[in-house]
Amino acid sequence: MNRLLLSASLFLIFQSLAFAQIDKNATKETKALYKNLGMLAQDHILFGHQHATEYGHGWVGDEERSDVKSVTGSHPAVIGVDFMGLSGRPEAEIVRTAEALRKNILDTYTRGGITTVAWHFANPASGGGFYWKDSVSVAAMALIKPGGSHHEAYKKTLKTIGNLANSVKAKDGTLAPMIFRPFHEFDGDWFWWGKGHTSREDFIAVWQFTVSYLRDSVNIHNFIYAFSPDNKFNSEPEFLERYPGDEWVDMVGMDNYGDFGRDGKYNLEAGLKKLKIVSAYAKKAGKLAAFTETGLESIPNPTWWTETLLKTLTAEKLNLSYVLVWRNDTKSPTHYYAPFPEQVSAPDFVKFYNDPYTLFEKDLKDIYK
């Protein structure tokens, strides 16, 4: 029996929920994805992996390959890409990066999968890359907001993103939708847009301008906008401390490695509490919710997938659209977050894959209709 059979009653239940996208002119396919993600979250969660089809443990650029597919026979349902290379580099390199991104996004869309976009945005006003580096980095959020010294340069970067977003056209002429997740983990200090380097007011001003400019000036109508702090909150007010407002966000999420085994430390009760805060706010505000990043580097725990991740996700009703684990580095012997054949957690990952609660790319049917 197909794991994705959706009953008419489930559709009616979803229709009664007050989900509304912030882009009233979103493409038909983007609206369909938004609604279907909300509907599927009633009984399932989609599995995602960052850079899954671009490279993996010991390989790069192989057609139709992913480490997840090598273990389960299916790509992840959600595949993460990054807009990191669309600014702060020579123009020719930006063009090459955009072309590679375009192919990856279109390939995923054509197969029926979903793309989510992270943005490790290099500091536009100083060196230091996307990380904050003392004595090198400058507090640039105040500089790229409207009226700031680097605002025009920021608009140029957004136009580059817009050009890519408006170029991911399938053979039938439709644009591939994307979940766009800018300025993530903003409650930490490791990125230059982090809490210690910008005021609440400047963060919100940049967020609102970013959405408005992409949607209303550059005419991007295939984005679902996701808001995702790290795990430094313990209450709804803390979670929403830098929230730009319901009219500026489509999806709320959380990145959380710390409660799920990083450095050998597990606090699954705290992790579940935070996921409940995210899910409850999404339901109240008519938003989608997701576990936007997690994972255990090197996955030394052979039952992490079922006994840590799945057990937490199913402990209570959460209504999360997807869970994404981080990337598998092509060269590092230890920097990977999804299993590959012969990795110690691979058998448990197959159990995770076979659980009716989890959905992978092969399970998705007409997600854009």
From TrEMBL:
Residue span(s) of domain GH26: 28-362
Cellular compartments annotated: Secreted
Keywords assigned: Carbohydrate metabolism, Glycosidase, Hydrolase, Secreted, Signal
Signal peptide range: 1-20
Residues the UniProt record annotates as site (Plays an important role in maintaining the position of the catalytic nucleophile): H184
Keyword Disulfide bond: no
Active site positions, chain numbering: E185 (proton donor), E293 (nucleophile)
Annotated InterPro entries: GH, GH26_dom, Glyco_hydro_26, MANB/E
Class of the enzyme per the UniProt entry, highest EC level: hydrolase
Chief localisation class: secreted
Catalytic activity, EC: 3.2.1.78
Record's protein name: Mannan endo-1,4-beta-mannosidase
Gene3D superfamilies per record: Glycosidases (3.20.20.80)
Molecular function GO labels: mannan endo-1,4-beta-mannosidase activity
